[in-house]
């Protein structure tokens, strides 16, 4: 027996989403079990079942070292402030 | 999966600060042992209760009146066992007991399950009262856990369980409406069911939460037992009375100043008996469950034998 992780997705919508796990002796039984355990009310149209052992899962430090990289974002507030400043500047110098 | 996503905390204070900050614990984290054990026990109790609930529901498949309701009961039975399965998977990932150990402990009478499954459902009226009053109490408790649960895997699986319990509640209400609009004999049967199940349903919420309740402190439960119980009383007393039924609580009164119902004193002795697995129907329930487990050994053997679906069907 092996542990499998189950992912579901509605056709044409959203991403695959993890819904839970199950125990099964082989791939075929894992699929049947996944349907009976997780898709009894048409919760999804597409199913992924993956052996837990096959999931690559690195440490948090590997995955998320980018919390301190402001140059990869831009604050909308800064742009709004510049917009406002520019409008005020143009108002102060009316057309001739 | 390579289990190296673990986080750890230097002290329980650190851990509690993480929880108070809205932190969510995952199964691979090096959580404090006390937390791991408390959460595990809570999920195991929930899983056991779903399992025993599934068996009760199953017993009623042949006796449920009408094909449509019979089919709904079959679906509900599968849901209850399905919930037990999801919860046992989540509990097993906490690496305290395996799924098999949990089920075997349950059937050996070594584990606890909710008080309401220590009573016998004797009539269809009882089943209706259980499906409505008891399921509502269980659902309210689960929603209060879902709202703010710090253990991620439990919270995520509760979302699914709660949506299916919502279906059960509507089914219960539908059945109650039918019996309440039925013959005099049906109404008497339902009144008897309210008399028999009112107190067990009320006791399901448990005695008032203690000031140092760790499940509240660690953000597993989000509301105190007495708050949930009171909300249930405020809902069901006026509802059942408006349908012409009476509540079997001689101490029940309406407080005009506070504009709310106040329940009479609650005798907690019956609840404590169920904690020790010596409730009115505990012995029969556990021995029947254990017999089902023995009888179904061949199914587990077949599923573990690495055969194809075709081979299993032909065997």
Quick summary:
The complex is a heterodimer of chains A (96) and B (315). Chain A is α+β, with helices and mostly antiparallel strands.
SSE diagram, text form:
The complex is a heterodimer of chains A (96) and B (315).
Chain A: E1 2-9, E2 17-24, H1 27-38, E3 46-51, H2 60-63, H3 76-92
Antiparallel strand pairs in A: 1-2, 1-3
Chain B: H1 12-20, H2 33-59, H3 67-92, H4 99-107, H5 124-146, H6 152-180, H7 184-203, H8 214-217, H9 225-242, E1 253-255, E2 260-262, H10 269-275, H11 282-295, H12 297-304, H13 309-314
Helix pairs in contact in B: 2-3, 3-6, 5-6, 5-7, 5-9
Mean pLDDT of chain A: 90
Structural class of chain A: alpha+beta
**Tell me about the biggest sheet of chain B?**
2 strands, antiparallel
Q: Bin the strand percentage of chain B.
A: under 5%
Question: What's the arrangement of strands in the largest beta sheet of chain A?
Answer: 2-1-3
Radius of gyration of chain B: 21 Å
The H-and-E topology of chain A, N to C, reads as EEHEHH
- CATH fold-level name of chain B: Ferritin
The strand count of chain B comes to 2
Question: Biggest protein-protein interface?
Answer: A-B, 25 and 27 residues
Task: Let me know the CATH homologous superfamily of chain B.
Answer: Ferritin, core subunit, four-helix bundle
N-to-C SSE string of chain B, H for helix and E for strand: HHHHHHHHHEEHHHH
Strand order of the largest sheet of chain B: 1-2
CATH class of one domain in chain A: Alpha Beta
CATH superfamily of one domain in chain A: Phenylacetic acid degradation B
Structure write-up:
The complex is a heterodimer of chains A (96) and B (315). By secondary structure, chain A is α+β, with helices and mostly antiparallel strands. Chain A has a domain at 1-54: Phenylacetic acid degradation B (Ubiquitin-like (UB roll)). Helices cover 34% and strands 23% of the residues of chain A. Chain A has three helices and three strands; from the N terminus they run E-E-H-E-H-H. Chain B is an all-alpha fold and 315 residues long. Chain B contains 13 helices and two strands. Chain B has a two-stranded antiparallel sheet with strand order 1-2. In chain B, a hairpin with a 4-residue loop joins strand 1 and strand 2 (260-262). The mean pLDDT of chain B is 94. The interface between A and B is medium-sized, with 25 and 27 residues.
């Amino acid at each position: 027996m092996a542990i499998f992780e189950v992912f579901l997705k509605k056709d044409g919508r959203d991403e695959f989403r993890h819904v839970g796990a199950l125990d099964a002796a082989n791939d075929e039984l894992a699929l049947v079990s996944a349907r009976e355990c997780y898709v009894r009310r048409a919760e999804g149209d597409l199913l992924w079942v993956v052996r837990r052992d096959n999931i690559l899962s690195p440490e948090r430090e590997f995955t998320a070292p980018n919390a301190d990289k402001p140059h990869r974002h831009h604050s909308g507030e800064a742009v709004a402030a510049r917009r406002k400043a520019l409008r005020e500047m143009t108002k102060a110098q009316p057309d001739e | 999966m390579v289990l190296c996503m673990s986080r750890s905390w230097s002290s329980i204070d650190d851990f509690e600060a993480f929880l108070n900050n809205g932190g969510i614990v995952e199964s691979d984290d090096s959580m404090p042992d006390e937390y791991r054990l408390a959460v595990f026990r809570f999920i195991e109790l929930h899983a056991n209760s779903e399992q025993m609930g599934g068996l009760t529901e199953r017993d009623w498949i042949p006796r449920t009146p009408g094909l449509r309701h019979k089919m709904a009961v079959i679906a509900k039975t599968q849901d209850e066992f399905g919930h037990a399965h999801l919860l046992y998977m989540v509990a097993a990932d906490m690496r305290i007991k395996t799924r098999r150990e949990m089920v075997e402990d349950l059937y050996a009478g070594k584990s606890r399950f909710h008080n309401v499954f220590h009573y016998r459902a004797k009539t269809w009226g009882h089943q209706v009262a259980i499906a409505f009053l008891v399921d509502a109490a269980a659902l309210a408790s689960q929603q209060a856990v879902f709202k703010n649960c710090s253990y991620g895997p439990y919270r995520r699986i509760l979302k699914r369980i709660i949506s299916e319990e919502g279906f059960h509640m509507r089914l219960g209400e539908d059945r109650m409406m039918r019996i309440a609009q039925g013959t005099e004999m049906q109404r008497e049967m339902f009144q008897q069911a309210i008399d028999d199940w009112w107190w067990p349903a009320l006791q399901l919420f448990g005695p008032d939460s203690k000031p140092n309740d760790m499940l509240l402190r660690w953000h597993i439960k989000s509301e105190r037992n007495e708050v949930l119980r009171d909300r249930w009383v405020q809902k069901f007393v006026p509802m059942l009375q408006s349908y012409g039924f009476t509540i079997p609580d001689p101490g029940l009164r309406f407080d005009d100043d506070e504009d709310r119902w106040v329940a009479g004193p609650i005798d907690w002795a019956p609840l404590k008996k169920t904690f020790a697995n010596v409730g009115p129907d505990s012995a029969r329930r556990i021995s029947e469950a254990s017999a089902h487990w023995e009888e179904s050994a061949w199914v587990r053997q077949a599923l573990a034998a690495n055969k194809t679906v075709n081979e299993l069907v032909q065997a």
